[in-house]
Design brief:
The chain folds into 5 domains: 66 residues, no CATH class; 97 residues, Beta Barrel (OB fold (Dihydrolipoamide Acetyltransferase, E2P)); 233 residues, no CATH class; 48 residues, no CATH class; 98 residues, no CATH class. The chain is built from 22 helices and 16 strands. Strand 15 and strand 16 form a beta hairpin. Helices cover 53% and strands 16% of the residues. It is α+β, with helices and mostly antiparallel strands. The C terminus is likely disordered. It has a 5-stranded mixed β-barrel with strand order 1-3-4-6-5. Strands 9-10-11-12-13 form a 5-stranded mixed β-sheet, covered by helices on one side. It has a 3-stranded antiparallel β-sheet with strand order 14-15-16, with no helix packed on it. It starts with 30 loop residues before the first helix and ends in an 11-residue tail after the last strand. Helix 6 crosses helix 11, helix 6 packs across helix 16 and helix 11 packs antiparallel against helix 12.
Length: 623
Amino acid sequence: MQRSRPPRPPSSPSPPRAAPRRFGGLSAVGDRWLITGAVATAAGALWAPSVSWWWGAAFVGAGLRTRTRVLVPVGLLVLGAAAMGQQIAQLSAAVGGDFEGEAVLVGDPRWRSGALVVPFSEVIGQEQFRWEGRARGPAAWKLEDAALGERWLLSVTATPAEPADRHFVWPRHLAGNAQIHTAWRQDGGSAPFRLANSMRSLIEASSDSLSQRDAALLAGFVYGDDRGQLPEVVHDFRATSLTHLLAVSGSNVAFVLLLFAPLLVRLRPGVRLGAVGVLLAQFAVLTRGEPSVLRACVLATLAVGAHAVGRRASAPRLLALAIIVLLLVDPLLVRSVGFQLSVAATAAIVVGARPISRLLWGPSWLRLALAATLSAQVGVLPVQLAVFGSLPLVSIPANVLAGPIAGPAMVWGLIGGLAGGVAGDAVASVLHIPTRFMMGWVAGVARWGAALGWPHIEPSEIAAAVAVIGLCAAAAYLLRAYGVVPRSLAIVAAGIGIWVVAGVHRPPLPSGVHLSVHRVDPTVVVVDRPDAARALDQLATAGVDDIDVLVARSASRAGREAVRALDARHEIANLLAPAGLGGRVPYNSVTEPVAVGGLVVEPAAQRLRVSTEVASNTWAQDP
């Protein structure tokens, strides 16, 4: 008989063997290192020493394969510097002279200071350079209706940018200026450009039933074309910081994807990624490759790509990757104001929108909209102050009121514009009924905000504003400890403090080559070939409402347009102008010297000469 063995005591389970750790691949790099890498790429592009690509690639490769993640941002710093160095070397190699050959337009022509400005790219020798051409006479008449991507045969005289002008010209990829002597159209360019220009033509044709203001706003909302904007509308949008609505931004990209979402969700992940890439590339061509659109397109493509490979990616990670990709491909974007504003606003919304919304009260849609606006305004504040000098406080309520309309206006304008352009004027006039309402609402908000005359925040006032915010926050915290003040009221107190600090500032009366205000009583405004929108901005900043005497020195088209724009926003009691001004504003033709408000106005070769009066300060009106 066999003896049974006693059962073995259960052995304790051995710990699972640790899988070998992998150090390679971008997915192993944490968000903080990628964010640091994006900052390093931008810093390298700004620094731009003479370095080699190989060093940057070696650092990045070592950082991806080892635990030393700090090598990744170091390598990106070197790569950004190498990319910028290569761009600068290419632009520095441009040579001037007389050239004749085929050129591709890299921008839409626009009139500026009596000349048609035409950005184009032309092959000279073995290099391809971009020039900012200026055409007058027959060449300008031929090029006036040209569009991006078309091929033309041009005869030009090119001049490379002077060292003092390079920081203005080079960030736009322009090697210098060129005078265009003759122009002959070759063809409409490649297929993506022909498709984009055809879509623009259809939308433009469908807007014939709209007013000039609404048609220009529609073009701005749908594809970012601001060439036809009325000067007074430009002033209103500037005064309320709503100009970003007329320059296509990331929100437009989101609405385009939302529009095509029913078709995209039916595709397999890999096919969907390709379809999104083609769709966004065509939209970038339609909107002329605005920096904010490029940032949003790359970010959206990365998000779809991460979903296609089954990986989750946070918003800060995607934004950092988009910045790295764009700056390595086009490092000159780092000096683009549009790119800086887009990145700053997006980063601020990603970081601060939800925390700020929890401090506010009201329905969720209002809190999120207001929080996004507040965070975006805080994010763009450093860039806006450095570039434009001030930030209007009215931009916050204006963006809250107009922002929600921008998306539907873009989507409906694209659908209704294309359908109306195909169907004809009768159908287009019906389809654009909602367009009239939406354009009228946004323009009305801009007009209302500009007329309020709220103060602006300027760099010199930031320190005082920060101090006021700190005091308000401290007071609210102390009072809240005793149950007196809810913490959300700290936002209101801080806003009032900023208002008070900004309202103390009173800028001087504007004076320059285009516009000058000489007296307050009576208010005498002199304009000379002005930028009408800039003249309105200067008068609004100086707090000038009514104009007692407006002196238009020139009877040119620009002078007539300036008078019309000033009359649209100000009460003009008397207008002095040379004979032949024309227009709908009645004026007194100056045929002999006139004394007005300490000035002497006299005719001089189809213009008016203005000098300081010595003997008399009385105003004599010409009969």
